Amino acid sequence: MPFPVHRWPEVVRWISCVLLLVLPGCADLAPRFPPSVSPATSGIDPALDAQTRLLESAYRAFAQERYPLASALLQRFVDSNPDSPRLSEARWWLARSYEERGDLQAALSAYRALVGEAPRSTSRTDSYEYHALNRLDEFRRNLSLSSLLERRQIALWLPGAYWLSIPDVGLWIAQLAEAGVTSLIVEAGSPSLETMQSGPVGVYFQTSKAPVIEDLFTVIVPAAHAKGMAVLAAFNLHEPGWTTMTPEWGVIMANGTDQVFQPVGRVDVLHPEYQRLVGEVTQDLLSTDIDGLVVGARRTKGFAEEWSPTSRRMFEVQFEPSFDSHDQPVSPDAWRWAGWKTRTYLGFVARLTQQLRQTRPGLLVAVAVHERAIFSPVDALTEYGEDVFETKQRGLHLVVQPEPGMSERSDEQRAKLETVQQRLTPMPGDERQLWLGMTLGAVDPSSLVTAVSGIIAAKVGQVGPHLLLMNGSAFP
């Protein structure tokens, strides 16, 4: 069943440039300059009018955090209008779009192209060229990003608790590196109480915002970097077993018998106070020198059935909903709610990415989804709040995790990976932002190294998207 599409009001056409001023990371990089061509001139010249419309479309995409679309529109402008008086403007926002996507190499190239076209006499502090020079200087001074994530990755995903059983972390990481693993994905917090029977609650890095089980990241990250391996932290926002949830953050849903709404012990990911906590905790996580962040997938169903007074008020501000189904199996507003809630959640992840990149430019941020998001997108949206297209549009990496019961035979998994890849990478270069999962069945650290070596020796996924190896499914 199709979902209603939220139409942005026409006023966005006129305020999109103003929004750019208040978007995190934009205001302190450069002001929004007046158009290079006066409105009177623009109204006379059809070619300049067309350029203005194209730039407005790009600005609107940027303001909506659709950075792949914004960069595509701006690249079209640059390629089609090499003599435009607004070329510098387009190149600046092209570089900004690439930067927000986390594609630093493309951003640096765009900044350099902008600076290279500037006359030697350019020294105005209100010019795009001047701000591009400053941005390049900031990269040279502050950006000590490693090239660990520039190559295609073979990643191993492990829960934080798994590392507690390893007697010599440094030696084991060296063995994994020798086996061919190029990056580690380490769960930064304990799982939700629904998915574990017992165990400590907290995180595996230093922070004052949550209980600390053990500071593993200060051991894992330096050891991995010494072997040329990247480290990404996996953090579950839907089911934060790493902290104590306050009642105000909770959601309710109807029970399965008399449809009475009851608390279900899960958090509303849209609650502003919870989002503030997530922002503070992840900022502390950056201090461990991680190379990226993976936002974990929701484990339990019911995303679209849950709501809180806070999120419902947010929804009603934009719509005048009526959840009565009348003569329809599902009311149109119920579908609208599912789509709106998913888009709003992914919008939060995009804003969190912007905030973290103020501290760590180019930080890789990925969103994990079930395979169901590929093969049954409607179910994945309503059950887990997953939308592959929306995730890609926001410039985030996509991690496709294997489902429970997935065969551990490499040939069967390889066939499944090829099917997923065909559906998700219709355009060249898309595989750079795609991580495909395979399951392993190792029972201890030693056999895990052997299993990893076997997968790599079998040449599973030697080209294409990043390969993600998981010792058992991430979804219980």
Give an overview in words.
- This protein is an alpha/beta fold and about 475 residues long.
- The chain folds into 2 domains: about 10-140, Serine Threonine Protein Phosphatase 5, Tetratricopeptide repeat (Alpha Horseshoe), CATH 1.25.40; about 155-470, TIM Barrel (Alpha-Beta Barrel).
- The chain is built from 18 helices and 10 strands.
- The strands form 2 sheets. It has an 8-stranded parallel β-barrel.
CATH topology of the largest domain: TIM Barrel
Overall number of structural domains: 2
Query: Strand portion, in percent?
Result: 5-15%
**Main sheet summary:** 8 strands, parallel, barrel
Judged by helices, strands and strand pairing, the structural class is alpha/beta
CATH architecture of the largest domain: Alpha-Beta Barrel
Q: Radius of gyration over alpha carbons?
A: 24 Å
Number of helices: 18
Give the overall silhouette: globular
- The level of helicity is 40-55%
Strand order of the largest sheet: 1-2-3-6-7-8-9-10
For the secondary structure, the number of strands is: 10
